[in-house]
Amino acid sequence: MSDWFIGVGLGTESPPYDYTGSYREQTVTVDASPVQVDITTNPPLGVQEDTRIGILPIRRSINYVASLGGPDPSNTGVLSDDDITDLLTQARATSARWLEPLSYGLARWTVEVLPTVEDVPMVEQNHDGWVAELGGMRPDLDWPAIGEVSENADLYLGVFPVLRRGFHP
User: Which of 6-15, 50-59, 89-98, 113-122 is predicted with the least confidence, judged by mean pLDDT?
Assistant: First the structure.
């Protein structure tokens, strides 16, 4: 005879995209005879991984202009408060409707919006510059302003406007 610890993820889907999920564990003793297991007799485990995400809004962007071969201060994008609210709502909904149920209730995101960077724009140095700019902490942004939050978040998501002149949605 030996004791085994088993776990089972249970989930459902009700169209359109309405998922539920839970993870349950049970200890069973295994020997020569069959074992009856009813995993639903135990309560589901709670969240095991709560990833804290800090959204860092950057109000303005200065966009690259091909004819100039660089950024043009007259070609700016402006991130509205509604854009920030929409992103926060979407991130929280993604956690609740997708991440939590599809991880069987074991993971979630806790999302907060950090203070908006108002005085320093994000600058697109070349046409693919956003990746390069975000690849490391930009020295011209006042990153120490988010220092107190850095201990409270596992991941930062920088959000800034990318609207080039001549683009009409």
Answer: 113-122
Separation CA 15–CA 141 (nearest Å): 45
**Residue 140 phi/psi, 5° resolution?**
-85, -5
Question: Is 44:25 a contact under the CB 8 Å cutoff?
Answer: no
Q: Is the pLDDT of residue 59 over 70?
A: yes
Q: Which domain holds residue 12?
A: 2-41
Q: How many CA atoms lie within 13 A of 67 on its CB side?
A: 3
For the chain, what is the domain count? 2
Residue 146 has pLDDT above 50, yes or no: no
Residue 164 domain-assigned (yes or no): no
Question: Can you tell me the distance from the alpha carbon of 100 to that of 9, in angstroms, rounded to the nearest whole number?
Answer: 12
Same domain assignment for residues 73 and 89: yes
Assess whether 85 and 67 both reside in one domain.
Answer: yes
Shared domain for 94 and 141, answered yes or no, is yes
| pLDDT over 70, % of the chain | 75
